[in-house]
Amino acid sequence: MASIWAADRAQRFYVGIALFALTAIAVGFSTTYLIPMARRTFNAPVVVHVHGACAFMWMSLFLAQALLVRSGRTKLHMRVGQAGLPLALAIWFSGILTAAWAARRDFPSQGQVAEASFVGTVSGLSLFLAFVAAGYAVRRRPAAHKRWMALAAIAVLWPAIFRWRHLLPTMSRPDIILGLFVADLPILVAILRDRLRYGLVHPVWLLGGTFWFVEQGFEVAVFDTMWSAPIGRVLLAMLP
Description:
This protein is mostly helical. Helices cover 79% and strands 0% of the residues. It contains 12 helices and no strands. Helix 2 packs parallel to helix 8 (142-155). The N and C termini lie far apart (49 Å). 34% of the residues are buried.
């Protein structure tokens, strides 16, 4: 099986995922962050800006790493990659604090919807961090490593893609259309690519993708119900 995946070295596919991710972030956060920042109308705690900077740096690092592999500079790729896990931890920590601030800000107008949203952010960020950790655990197995990192990049994209709703016609369930189907489409594309190009699907997509689909499906199913909001309330009470 290792010989099958050896043909996947230095492919453009992972550069494409990185470029798609950076584009999705620029589009998604243009109306809610980038433009308001340019107009000096965006007010938020420092941690919000830290989270945005860390997420952008992680995606930029993912692109740089894919380009280094494409150019055959694997030793430099390995040295630069040491920054990835600490950066992912910073995204996780700052993202939870950012989500807590947003939930408390929105609670007066949205009630338990704000609390339920916080639960989804915590679970999504935690799974992102788990994917990154898995990628580091198998970093000497390139085929698995790159897929775990690509899966992590896709997983952390859903907030940006969900914000595309601000630029699109009104839709009844943007959480399903954008946050579930569109945000998860790159995983399905990756699975199809493996099947067509190599004759089978790499286990990372099957294992990690299943965890992600289950988490996303469960999040949509229990959102704004008797289950999610109370959990969010408890988690928020644990944070400063």
